[in-house]
Structures are given as C-alpha cells and as structure tokens.
Design a protein that fits this description.
By secondary structure, the protein is of the alpha+beta class. The protein has 3 helices and 2 strands, in the order αββαα. The N terminus is likely disordered.
C-alpha cells in the first residue's frame, strides 16, 4: 500500500518487530496493521489496514498455489491486455501479465497462511 508522497507501508512495516515492548508494530498473522494517523485538519484516529497483496487473487491473505493456478490463466505476454480479474498479477502496472510479473509473483509467494 503506497500513498503518493507518503509512507510505503509494506516496506516500512513488513519486517519490523514490536508489540508489548513499545517498539514499532508489524503486520499480525491476518496481515492487518493497526495504525494511528493524524491529519492536517487536526483530526486523528486509529485505523486497521487490510492491504491488498499483489498476487493474492483469492483474497485470503497469502500468495500460494491457488493464486498460481489463476496466474497461469492470466499470462498473456508483453503488450497483451490483461482482463480486469488479472489486475492483481500486474506487478508493474503496465496492463499486461508477462514474464516480469511472473518473476515478481515468485518473489511474493508466501505459501498458505
């Protein structure tokens, strides 16, 4: 999850530790992140983030063999427009699912949650 000009939440929190020791928190086992945000208008709140993971086609919080089976149907090569249901596999946002996206999928694979 990236907000232009703001914090990239995935790289900032993915490998951090924390908890009762008062240090920075990382994602819990359900891949959620609770974060307190303060806004420029003076308002604030605590939010639970449920980021969408590239490669997680079935939305179950992991990138595994089930997602890989769908990736296979989405591979179309460079320049071949990917259907909307394949958007989660378009890691470089170039509107196709090609070998670059396949390699990124392999890096994102987590196995079953």
């Amino acid at each position: 999850l990236s907000i232009p000009g703001q914090l990239d939440l995935i790289s900032a929190y993915w490998n951090k530790t924390g908890g009762s020791d008062g240090q920075r928190q990382s994602f819990n086992d359900a891949r959620q992140l609770a974060i307190k945000l303060k806004f420029t208008d003076g308002t604030h709140g605590v939010f639970v983030l449920h980021p969408l993971w590239d490669g997680d086609h079935d939305g179950d919080g992991d990138v595994d063999f089930v997602d890989f089976s769908m990736l296979q149907t989405c591979l179309g090569g460079a320049g071949a427009a990917a259907p909307a249901e394949c958007e989660v596999f378009d890691f470089d946002n170039d509107e196709d699912v090609d070998l670059f996206d396949y390699e990124q999928f392999l890096n994102a694979e987590t196995g079953p949650a």
